[in-house]
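PT: before anyone asks, these are the final sequences, not the draft ones from last week. 789 residues across everything. Please model them as a single complex and drop the result in this thread when it's through.
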Amino acid sequence: MPMNGTNREHNSNEDRAPSCREEEAFGYIRDKVNQMLTVIGTFPLKPDELDDDTLIQLDPLGIISDTFRQILTHLNETNIDLEAARDDLRAIFDSVGEGIMVLNTQGEIITYNEKMKSLFIDDSLDAVGLTCRDAVCNGETSEANCLFFQIRKRRKSVRVRSWHCRNRFYEIVATPIFSRDGELQRIVILYMNITNRRRTEMALLESEDRYRDLFDNATDMLLIIAPDGRILVVNKAWQETLGYDDDAVAHLNIFDILHPDHCEACRDKLRKILEDGREIACQAVFRSKAGKEVFVEGKINCRFVDGRPVALRGFFRDITEKLHMEEEMRRTQKLEAVGLLAGGIAHDFNNLLTGIIGNILLAKLKSNDPEVNQLLQNTENASYRAQELTRQLLTFAKGGAPVKETASVLGIIKEVTAFVLSGSKTTWTLEAEEEIKPVDVDTGQFSQVLQNLVINSDQAMPDGGMITVRVSNCTLSKQNAHPLPAGEYVRIDIRDQGIGVAKEHLSRIFDPYFSTKKRGSGLGLATAYSIIRNHNGLLTVDSELGVGTTMTIFLPVSTRKIKEKEAVSAEPRHGMGKILVMDDDEIVRKVVLQMLTHLGYEVAEAENGERAVEMYQEAIAENRPYDGVILDLTVPGKMGGKETIARLRSLDPQVKAIVSSGYSNDPIMADYTKYGFSGVVPKPYSMEKLSETVHSLFVK
Amino acid sequence: MDTTPEANLIVHDIRGQICPSTLLFALREVNREQQALKEKGAAIVILTDNRNAIATIPEAVSSMGYATTVEKKDGYYQIEIRARKKRTN
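LR: through. Structure below.
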C-alpha cells in the first residue's frame, strides 16, 4: 500500500516553509513515536523512511496506541491464564500421592503439598519458612546423610532408596532447580512412602527364610527337577547323602544320579506324572558322587502353572540303612530258627551220647579183654568228638552264655593253635614273659574264638609265615582307650604276617556277614567278638595292608584260683550215699543209675520233677533222706530242674542238687548257684566228671 | 491486499515499495484485522524485502499475543502472523 506521493506533495505545496512551531510539533511526534516503539521493543523510525507528511497520514501514534491496547489485553489474558495454571498446578501438587516440598537454598520450606503435610507436619503448624530439618526429620538425620546438604554439594538429583523416619520407610528423590545463569535456586524433594512395600519385602524375606530353613534342615532328601530332568534345587540332606556340592548339582540331571538299572523305569514314571499330574510313590537307587549306592523311597509330584508342567518335586528318604537292618533282622531270625533247631538236636543228641558213653564206660569196666577195651576206648573217643560237635553247633548257632571256669589261657592257646596249624605251612610261636594270671572262661567257647582267629591268620598267609601269639598281664586305667572298665586283664595278641585288612574294612570286620574272603560266612569274627564280649572282655583288630594283622583279646583277670584238677584224670572216685536221679530220658536214667551204682551209691530214679519231689518227701518221712539229687533241666510237659529245685529247697533248705542238661548253653547251667543248685554236670557225662562232682558234693 | 478465502489468509505484498515503515504498516494491519485474526483464525501474511522487518515484526506482535513464522523466499521474506492458541478454561 502506498504511503507516499500525493499527500506529501500537497503538504509541501501548501506550506513550503513550515514554521518553527510546526517543526517542533513534528519533532515531538517523531520523538514520542520512537519512544513508544522502543517500549514495544523495536527500533526507532529513520527520518528517510517516513517524512513528516506521511508521519501525519500514517498516524503512528494511533497505530501504537492500538498496539498497546492489544498488548494490555494480551497481558490481562496471560495473567488470567497464569492464575488458572497456578491453580491447576496446586491441585496437581496436592493430589499427588507422595509428599513433595520445595526448599530455598537455605533449606527453608517454600511450599509443600497436602501429602507432605499428612506425612510429616502437624495440622496446626504452618511449615513454610521452617527448615526441613526442623519440620521433617527433627534432626534425626546426620549432615552426611541429609539430602539438602548432599544436593548443595553435588548439584544434581540425589535418590535415597530407603530412609527410615518416624516408623516409616521412604524412598526420596531430591531435584535441584537452577536459575538461567546456573545458580541453585530451589530444591524439590519427593517423599515416596514405601513402608508397605518394605514390610511386604521383609515379610517375604522372612517367609523365604522360614521355608529355606525347613527345606534345608529336612532330614529327607528334597529336590526340584525341571521337566527335562535337569536338577534345579536340592536340599542339604540330599547333598550330604549324595556328596555333590552346589557347583556339581548345577550341572546334574536326575538320570546322572540314578542307578542305570532304574533309569528306564524312572523315565516312564516322569513321563506319566508330566502327563496326568498324579503323584506317584517310588523306590530307586541313587549313586553318590563317590559311587556308593543309596537306596531311596519317596514320592514325586508335579507343579503346574497355567496347566503346563513346570517342575517336578521329589521327596525321598534314604532307606539304605533300613534295608540293611531288615536284611540283618531276616538273617538273625533265620539264625535264631537254626539255633532253636540246633539246640533241640543237641539236647537229644547229648542224651543219646550220655547213653552211649555211659554204656561204653560200663562195658569197659566189665571187660578184661585188652583188645575189646581198645575198641571201646576208640568208640568212647569218637563219642567225645561227637559231643564236641554238638557243643560247637550250639555255640555257633546261638552264641550261648558261657559256662565259665577259672583257667589259664596258655594251655588252651597251645592246644588250639597246634591243632589248627597241624599240616599247615604256617609256623607259630608263643611268647609269655611272665606268669599269666588266671581268667574265667568257657573253655569251649574260648577255644572256638582262638580257632577262628588262628584260621584267619593262617588263611591270610597262603604261602606260609609266622604267627606270633603274645600273652601278657596288663592293667587298664579308667581313661583307657578301650570300652572296658578299669582293672586287670590278660592280653593276648595274635600277630600274623599276612595280606592285612584294608582300612575301610576294619570298622566292619566284626559285623555279622561281613567277609572279605570269597567263601567266608562272615560269622567267624562276629561270633568271636560276641563270645569275648560275653566274657566281659574285648576283641580288637589292627592291620596294615601287606604287613600283617594283629588281633588282640582282653580278658578280665579272675579273682579265683585255678582249681586243681586232682582226680579228674585219675580213676573215678567211689563213694557211698543215697542219690535220686530225675531225667525224662530212660536211657540216661539207666546209664546214670548203673554208673553210680558201680561207684557204690544207692540210686533211685524219677522220670519227672513231680515224681522226684514226691520221692524226696517220702524219703524224709521215712527218715531215710537222700544225700543228693541229680536233676535234668528240661522235661517236656512236666516239671523240669528249675522248678523242682525250688520245690525241694522249700522242703529241705539244705538239699544238695546237681543240675544236668544237654542244653549246655542254658543260662541256668552257667549260673547254677543262683537257682539253688550246688553243682553242674553237662551231658553227656564222663564217668570222671560225674564221679568227681557227686563225690565232692554228696559224700560227707 | 489479496485475500485467499480458502486459507483465510490476508496477504500484503509490500516488496519493492518504498515503504516508510514496514513495522508500522504491519502493526496497523494487525490492529485492523484484530477480530479476523483472533476470532476467525485468519492469518496476515506480509511479503517484504526489508530485512529489519523479520526481527521487529515478530518481536512486536509477540507482546500482543500473536505468533509468527518467518520464511525466507527467493529475494524476499514471508512473515505469517496468527493469533496464539488460547488456554482452554
